[in-house]
Amino acid sequence: MVHRPSWFEDGSVFVSFAPTVGINKDGEDLFVVNPETGIRTGVLDDQVLADVNTLLDEGKTTSTSRWVPQEALQPGLLAVPVYFDDRSQERFDDLLQEPQFAGFESATLGELIDDGRVIGRPGHGSPSADLRTGTVPYIKVSDLRAGQVNINPTNRVTEVVAKKFWRGKESGLAAYDILTPIRTSKNIGDFAVLMPGQERLVLTKEVLVLHAAEDAEFDNFYLLWAMSLRTVRRQWDRIVFMQTNREDVGARFRQIRIPIAPSREQADEVSKPFRDYYLGMQELRQKFLDHLSESDRYHIFLSSAEAVAEEIEEELDDLPD
Fold it and tell me: Which InterPro entries does this chain map to (predicted)?
């Protein structure tokens, strides 16, 4: 006879997705910190052990543990407990039950891409450092911050290199595309907006670009609104895995669920603040860019349009002795 513990469940696996196991990233003891004094206590911060003890002592799960059907443990997922943290899914379902979401349905990004309502594509590629001498901005994941695509004038490639990575004469990008890192970044799931004038740039391959199709019942600003909902943003936490010590989502971004408004009118209404903000900001940007274009005295990069090669040495040579 094989001993069968009282807590055992046939066909299921107990998974704890608690965030701490009593050791820090350096392999040293991780202690609980007193929030009032900011001083470490002598108690190990091991929430995984607490989940296991709760199961052994009480036969119960906690908010950071659950039973998973054995057939759900596909290859590659068994060793990633956070994938089975379904709290973000539950909170998303709760959101759709709120009165202001009456009539809304939901769809995954994968479903929206497959049925043509959303166009999804990766970045162009990652030119090596020795190719970064030119006029076309090269955007890395670190350049996507606070809802903006920030052009770094020290990271640019030539037109020839850009067209090689574009696989054509144009980048394929459009104004108000929304972009997020999908690898090597703590900002995975945080979206930035590509502003008009920034279309001719090279995006690192570690970026996901989303664009609402012309015949979709929503536009890019609605898509950004949906992606910015806290219950949607939290879903990204469960699909970010570590690969070669770097964060990565692979194709799992297709599992992200967003609300779908019952009509275009309602979609435009809920996303109006996002639309007003970015369109208003573009109006100010354009006035500023118009002013910059009136003189060659400035060195400011807000778009890819004004990224012309500077003749620094000639300017220095022209200085009086």
Answer: Restrct_endonuc_typeI_TRD_sf
The DSSP string of 1-55 is -----TT--TTEEEEE--S--SB-TTSSB-EEEPTTT--EEEEE--HHHHHHHHH
- Residue-wise pLDDT tens digits, 221-247: 999 999 999 999 999 999 998 777 788
Kindly state the helix (H) or strand (E) to which residue 210 belongs, with its residue range.
strand 207-212
Q: Both 127 and 64 in a single domain?
A: no
Q: Are strands 202-203 and 136-139 parallel, antiparallel or unpaired?
A: parallel
Distances (CA, A) of 95 to 89, 226, 232, 235, 272: 10, 12, 10, 13, 20
Q: How many domains does the chain have?
A: 2
Residue span of the structural domain in which 51 resides = 12-84
Query: Is the confidence at residue 307, as pLDDT, over 80?
Result: no
Which residue is associated with the tokens 């020290």? 154
Please indicate, yes or no, if residue 303 is contained in any of the structural domains.
Answer: no
